[in-house]
Specification:
The protein is mainly β. The two termini are 20 Å apart. Helices cover 6% and strands 42% of the residues.
């Protein structure tokens, strides 16, 4: 499950926030999340979202805390 960021003025989605892989089999939460600009989303299907990113580092963001 993920989240979205949106522009409060326009109501448009700006980013998708997707959880990364879990730590130690997911027991201790997640280490990273991926923040994907909505303009990089190429197609949304029933069970998949296709995105185009240049490098994984552009989408990775360490979780706060």
């Amino acid at each position: 499950m993920g989240d979205v960021e949106f522009d409060e003025k326009t109501g448009c989605i700006t980013h998708l926030i997707v959880p990364g892989p879990g730590c130690l089999c997911g027991i201790f939460g997640r280490e990273k999340e991926y923040v994907i600009p909505f303009c990089d989303v190429k197609q949304i299907g029933d069970d998949i979202i296709l995105v185009e990113i240049k490098t994984l580092k552009d989408a990775e963001k360490a979780c706060a805390g």
